[in-house]
Amino acid sequence: MIMPISYQRKLDGKSNAHLITFSDGKDYVVKCLQQGFEKSLPNEWVGYCLGRYLGLPIPFARIVEIPREFSSQIPEFTGLCESQFQFASQYVPDCLNGHEVSTVLKITNNRDLAGIIVFDYWLQNRDRTRKNVLFYKESVNSWKLWAIDHAEIFGSYDWLQADIEKLPARLLKSATHQQLARFIEDENQFYEQLEIIQTTPILLMEEIVELIPDDWNVTKDEKKAMVTALVTRRHKVLPKLIERFIKQRYRPLHMKGKEKD
Ligand SMILES: Nc1ncnc2c1ncn2[C@@H]1O[C@H](COP(=O)(O)OP(=O)(O)OP(=O)(O)O)[C@@H](O)[C@H]1O
Ligand SMILES: [Mg+2]
Fold it and tell me: Is the dihedral of CA 88, 89, 90, 92 positive or negative?
């Protein structure tokens, strides 16, 4: 397992994430278990694993351990990071978020965008804000997009089992989805992603939730409920939501004509 080597800085946002250099020479955005945000880390882990399986542009991540000898020397950590394991997402340098980027004429990985939207509906990610997409400049006005921050999938960062047994089946209000949808060239891409999601092995989902560290305090029943929610939504909820998204959000954008893009 990689070890933390040097503390860089605290990052913006309610998760109180920290940028730390690890023994593999790479910088990671580390999130710790916080009171009131009990499901942030399990959500990050499940969102990350499923997103990577689907081939979405989510930064490489892993579960790490921050030993007390390291955290006790960092004042910013006092009272934080008490659990043995943390979630660490590899830092993608030199990015702008959706608020900071001004002119985007081209998204080089635009084939991934429908996938991100379908993923957000599958997992009920209510936090696809402009801060949670990162743009890396590849050439003038041409950007690669990364999706980050899956702490609020399953509807929230502090869900209880009863909540995920009745997740909403409504269209999400996301200006970012609107922004991404403008770059999607073919609505069949939504259905291609739906098919991949519907054929994702249940065994994989079970393995992913099984790997949630014990000290993140997710009960056996909650883990089971996560898998049940995923399996139920992909068949009973997702197809209808995608159809509605295409009709109510995607098509109007594309019918308005390119001059308004
Ligand atoms: N892999 C990454 N590469 C580069 N920057 C990152 C990465 N992950 C997170 N960040 C930066 O750290 C900030 C906080 O991370 P993140 O959005 O995951 O947590 P948060 O505190 O839950 O945010 P929010 O305010 O949306 O709740 C992000 O807004 C982004 O600027
Ligand atoms: Mg965020």
Answer: negative
What confidence tens digit (pLDDT) does each residue in 132-180 have? 999 999 999 899 999 999 999 999 999 999 999 999 999 999 999 999 9
Q: Which of 64, 148, 174, 176 most suits a substitution to test ligand 1, by most atoms within 8 Å of the C-beta?
A: 148
Give the CATH number for residue 15.
3.30.200
Q: Where are the beta strands (DSSP E) in 66-186?
A: 85-90, 95-97, 106-107, 133-139, 142-147
Q: State the closest ligand 1 atom to the C-alpha of 40, by its place in the atom list counted from 1.
A: 22
Q: Are residues 115 and 170 in the same domain?
A: yes
What range defines the domain where residue 226 resides? 95-260
pTM of the model: 0.95
